[in-house]
Design brief:
about 45% helix, about 375 residues, Phage portal protein, three-stranded antiparallel beta sheet, single chain, alpha+beta
Length: about 375
């Protein structure tokens, strides 16, 4: 069968507001942002950021696949629970955790359905590194073309139908997503500077340096140099003995003053600036403070509102994952020669949501009962 040309096969022409390149293959955009090392450094330097992203991944919860045909559903559930992931894990949940983690950190989640050479069955799922992939700017935005790094070159991905791609909050007209950490490098750098200064201050406190001052009298002026050297030797000997756990007194004649260097300076209170910076980070990530172990005073009403905001964030992340899950299910069905509509049912965020849902259903049923009683006296 003759392969159709790009002009007839692509749906690129129906989007009139998309800028046209001067020639095909003019350029490509990396799926990893320019600040790729910076974003990774933020997670490594600030444990709270790493903990918040891990909380979001865990709270996203699992998903239940429901099919219209019970026989197909049983086979599909068995496949999704046993499919190898990255060669070391098993199950769709492990793949989705890595996919969402990459999407939150770098703005893009890339995966692949690994098949046999004939392309007749799915052997496993693989979480790819976004930094080695690029998307062509002149490709169809509805079916983008991807390039993979091979040595120093980027070559087109031959079988892009096996790729699983998700973008977090892409800008209008763009295919590449944006990291949830976007806007935090400056805040994180300031917070790191404060932590580094705290470390330096405590190192200085734990490793005291002394200033020994000898003020000779008029009678001692001829021997001032010799006595100063003698005091320095005895002081050094005493400090070496103290380091070995031995106490040695310093006995000297004359006006001698000993002070700890920096003892007059006070360590700055960093609680307020650190909290202000952490508030910026928490506001960006959308994780309530109590989930990160922060004992900030908050009312019950505020905690409920924060939980509601978190639930909306998780719902958004789940919507980004649903096309990936649907594609995996459709591909498996197509390779096995079966078909059945697939419905995704996500787990509740927590028990509190289940309790509130049960209370709402009870109040709704109670209201219907009262209405029916009033209508039939």
């Amino acid at each position: 069968m003759r392969k159709r040309t790009k002009a007839h096969d692509s749906r690129w022409g129906i989007i009139q507001t998309r800028p046209r390149p001067l020639w095909a293959g003019e350029g490509s955009v990396s799926l990893a942002p320019a600040a790729y090392p910076v974003l990774l450094g933020i997670r490594q330097a600030i444990p709270m950021v790493d903990a918040a992203l891990r909380r979001l991944v865990r709270l996203a919860g699992g998903v239940k696949i429901t099919c219209g045909d019970p026989g197909i559903q049983q086979r599909l559930e068995e496949f999704l629970s046993r499919v190898p992931v990255n060669g070391i894990n098993h199950g769709l949940g492990s793949f989705l955790d890595g996919h969402l983690d990459s999407m939150l950190t770098y703005g893009n989640g890339v995966g692949e359905m690994v098949t046999d050479e004939a392309g007749t069955q799915i052997l496993g799922l693989f979480n790819a590194d976004p930094s080695i992939l690029r998307v062509k700017e002149d490709s169809d935005p509805l079916e983008p073309d991807f390039l993979v790094q091979q040595g120093v070159e980027y070559r087109p991905v031959e079988n892009k139908q096996w790729l699983l791609y998700s973008a977090h909050d892409p800008a209008p007209g763009q295919i590449v997503g944006r990291s949830v950490l976007e806007g935090l490098p400056a805040v994180s750098e300031t917070l790191t500077v404060i932590f580094r200064s705290i470390r330096s201050n405590f190192e200085r406190v734990g490793n005291v340096r002394y200033a020994v001052t000898y003020q000779p009298t008029a009678e001692d002026q001829p021997y001032a140099g010799e006595r100063a050297r003698q005091i320095a030797r005895e002081w050094s000997r005493g400090m070496e003995s103290a380091a070995q756990g031995q106490v040695q007194d310093l006995v000297a004649v004359g006006n001698i003053s000993i002070k700890a260097i920096g003892s007059d300076n006070q360590i700055l209170d960093t609680e307020i600036p650190v909290r202000q910076l952490l508030e910026q980070i928490i506001a960006k990530l959308g994780v309530p403070p109590f989930l990160l172990g922060l004992s900030w005073s908050t009312t019950e009403r505020m905690a409920q509102q924060q939980t509601t905001i978190l639930a909306s964030e998780l719902s958004y992340y789940r919507r980004l994952l649903e096309p990936v899950i649907q594609k995996i299910c459709r591909t498996w069905m197509g390779l096995n020669g079966v078909y059945s509509p697939v419905t995704l049912e996500w787990e509740a965020v927590d028990l509190q949501d289940q309790l509130q849902q049960a209370q709402a259903e009870y109040y709704r049923a109670r209201a219907q009962e009262i209405t029916s009683q009033e209508g039939n006296p």
